[in-house]
């Protein structure tokens, strides 16, 4: 394979190179990396892309990672893109030059469990790498406050939000005439674009569409454009679910060309996303750019990306979301209002304005020849009390127990979910809630208003606990966050779990914590409190647990 030599540096500016494990054609990370390279070269920086693997369509735009150490110099800046397991940390640590992390977010492993065991393990390893990369970088960028919050939680220095620079002209490809004619037949087309993987919850897209077709619009079609491994566990599940639901006119197109994608958007009545985790969410903005109204489950960074445009929903109940699609279909005035708001959102992200913000961000990094000193946020908490519902469900037994424990343990802080609608924070500074120090973290999914519904996890909160060296108390040990944390912090953790918890969750907590797990009914707050304090004191680790 013939690889072009790096272009000469014409301006005296430092080189800014990019590294990532794989350069893929057509995915959001790959598109962003290639577009950034074009911007950096336009601004006068020498800029190469280094990777261990790449799609054949990218072969002329990438160089082998093994060449980076030889071709970079001590004045170069290395942008390390992180979104999946890379196994590149040792090489990055030894590479010359200054390192800056660009964080696209890592999908929680739990979203792949039951379907993709290897992918789940790789996601878990990627979060280990996120912590391992921290000592080697002088600054970190994220494409949303949601992602930046996790970097702060991990203890990264000099964290900032980098605007996502989009090449809007790439969306102006003329539609494929054959596919456009096929889809433009008078039916209402509901569109989803992206890889059909468990975290994208294409199964929920199917459920919402089925409800929409049966209750509101029989002449409707679902179009899913993106990679689908038909013989894989999730692909087989989707096809089986389609048959069980009985939905008609469901089209899984698989990978599509730029022209075919344009045809999908040109004929779409609405864009539907039920994804459970996005660090940004480019397809939603693409739909807005193309004039397609967006309905999206408000998970992770999606509400932030939408910026108040489109329709973001807290509910993932199929009939509730289907009702939003129906309102858009039947209320022409609302539809026009939504599209107008989406155009205003796109105007805020004009290509040249965003590119200038990116240039200024990199200019700040390059303005000094020496690495910037780390300014990482650290915590001095003596004990981490993990209670996701402390603020959003204060009357729950676990929340009342957490308050009583915090009152008895000097220096303890409560880690809790942030209420819906509040912006992600770029500081770990706790707030005082009637004398209890509480640090809030954005949940990965909206908190359901139904108190009987399980609370969601929070990648940022879980990362903060893993990055802390303090003892950990899990109230309760059967929550999503507790179950995620147990394999990583069990050696310094204690927990409380109700006897009536699901048997699998209780067994998992007992396996990891042993006699450091208090199995008591949380509603009996004083009984559970005394049992927990006795367990803490018996270890000698917390002598002040009296």
TrEMBL record:
GO MF annotations in UniProt: glycosyltransferase activity
Could you say which residues form the signal peptide?
Answer: none
* Pfam annotation, one family: Glycos_transf_1
| Key words of the record | Transferase
Q: Which GO terms describe its biological process?
A: lipopolysaccharide biosynthetic process
Q: Identify the SUPFAM superfamilies for this entry.
A: UDP-Glycosyltransferase/glycogen phosphorylase
Q: What is this protein called?
A: Glycosyl transferase, group 1 family protein
Organism, by scientific name, is Myxococcus xanthus (strain DK1622)
């Amino acid at each position: 394979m013939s690889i072009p030599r790096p272009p000469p540096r014409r301006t005296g500016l430092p080189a800014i190179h990019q590294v990532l494990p794989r350069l893929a054609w057509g995915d959001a990370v790959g598109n962003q990396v290639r577009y950034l390279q074009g911007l950096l070269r336009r601004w006068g920086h020498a800029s190469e892309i280094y990777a261990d693997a790449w799609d054949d369509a990218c072969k002329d735009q990438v160089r082998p990672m093994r060449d980076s150490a030889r071709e970079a110099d001590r004045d170069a800046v290395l942008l390390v893109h992180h979104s999946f397991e890379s196994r590149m940390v040792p090489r990055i640590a030894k590479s010359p030059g200054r390192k800056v992390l660009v964080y696209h977010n890592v999908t929680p492993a739990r979203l792949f469990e039951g379907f993709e065991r290897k992918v789940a393990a790789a996601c878990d390893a990627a979060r280990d790498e996120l912590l391992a990369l921290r000592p080697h970088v002088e600054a970190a960028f994220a494409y949303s406050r949601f992602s930046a919050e996790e970097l702060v939680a991990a203890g990264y220095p000099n964290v900032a939000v980098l605007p996502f620079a989009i090449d809007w002209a790439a969306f102006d490809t003329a539609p494929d005439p054959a596919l456009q004619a096929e889809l433009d037949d008078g039916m209402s087309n509901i569109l989803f674009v992206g890889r059909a993987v468990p975290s994208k919850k294409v199964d929920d897209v199917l459920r919402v569409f089925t409800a929409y077709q049966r209750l509101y619009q029989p002449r409707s079609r679902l179009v899913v454009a993106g990679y689908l491994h038909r013989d894989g566990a999730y692909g087989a599940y989707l096809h089986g679910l389609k048959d069980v639901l009985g939905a008609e006119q469901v089209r899984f197109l698989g990978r599509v060309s730029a022209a075919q994608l344009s045809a999908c958007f040109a004929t779409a009545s609405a864009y539907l996303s039920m994804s459970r985790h996005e660090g940004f969410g480019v397809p939603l903005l693409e739909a807005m750019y193309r004039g397609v109204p967006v309905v999206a489950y408000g998970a992770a960074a999606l509400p932030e990306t939408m910026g108040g445009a489109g329709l973001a929903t807290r509910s993932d109940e199929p009939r509730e979301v289907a009702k939003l699609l129906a309102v858009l279909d039947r209320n022409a005035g609302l539809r026009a209002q939504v599209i107008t708001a989406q155009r205003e959102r796109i105007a805020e992200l004009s290509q040249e304005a965003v590119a200038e913000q990116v240039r200024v961000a990199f200019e700040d990094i390059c303005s000094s020849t020496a690495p910037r000193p780390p300014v990482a946020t650290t915590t001095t908490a003596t004990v981490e009390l993990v209670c996701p519902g402390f603020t959003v469900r204060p009357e729950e037994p676990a929340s009342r127990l957490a308050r009583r424990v915090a009152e008895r343990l000097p220096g303890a802080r409560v880690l809790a979910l942030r209420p819906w609608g509040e912006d992600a924070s770029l500081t770990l500074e706790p707030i005082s809630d009637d004398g209890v120090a509480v640090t809030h973290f954005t949940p990965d999914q909206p908190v359901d208003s139904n108190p009987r519904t399980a609370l969601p996890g929070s990648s940022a909160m879980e990362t903060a606990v893993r990055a802390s060296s303090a003892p950990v108390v899990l109230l309760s040990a059967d929550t999503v966050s507790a179950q995620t944390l147990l394999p990583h912090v069990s050696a310094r953790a204690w927990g409380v779990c109700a006897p009536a918890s699901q048997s699998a969750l209780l067994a998992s907590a007992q396996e990891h914590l042993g006699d450091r797990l208090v199995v008591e009914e949380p509603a009996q707050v004083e009984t559970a409190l005394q049992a927990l304090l006795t367990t803490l004191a018996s270890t000698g680790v917390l002598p002040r647990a009296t």
